[in-house]
Amino acid sequence: MFVRIAVFDPLPVYRHGVMATLREAGLGSESPDDIFTWMDDDHLRLVVLSLQAGNDWERLGRLCRTYNDVLVVALLPDDAVTTHVRALASGAVAALPRDAQPSAVRATVEAVIGGRTVLPIDVLRGLTSHRASTSPDAAVPSPRELEWLRHLSTGAIVAELADQAGYSERMMFRLLRDLYKRMRAGNRTEALLLARENGWI
């Protein structure tokens, strides 16, 4: 199976370092300026995408919503379990910190090409404990609430969401807390995972 690979990172030196790492494993890659233009093709696509700023998370969400078959390996700003879960909830099929060793980057990309994923055990436990704790009587969010969840899945912060929805930031926090409670989710990450699992976002 032929897979085209793109590496998307704002730092040219880092981007070329990842490309060199992949090249050593016999994997060619490109560094397009516009990832969405590059996606318009019939081949299977794999994107190694750095997530640092809010617009990076927005790009991830948009990419995965627009192209259902895209394979995204997310390069994370830290190694926290919640950051991993957020990337997976936003559509990435694998994630690792940006400071990972080249061998880890190669192994992750090769696994994804082979139809598998590589996850830290703590992340796997976080995902499975979330699934086990998901209640069957969780409320389905309203269309307005689903729109809020879509915005949050792109990396938007509550202040931005409040401004867009016409609420104070404090009121927005209250509304979201109530939404998470009705969804039987403990926090934003769990709510986004639940929404994605149910096909709501």
TrEMBL record:
InterPro entries linked: CheY-like_superfamily, Sig_transdc_resp-reg_C-effctor
Biological process terms in GO annotation: regulation of DNA-templated transcription
Source domain of life: Bacteria
Coiled-coil boundaries: none
Single GO term (MF): DNA binding
Protein name per the record: DNA-binding response regulator
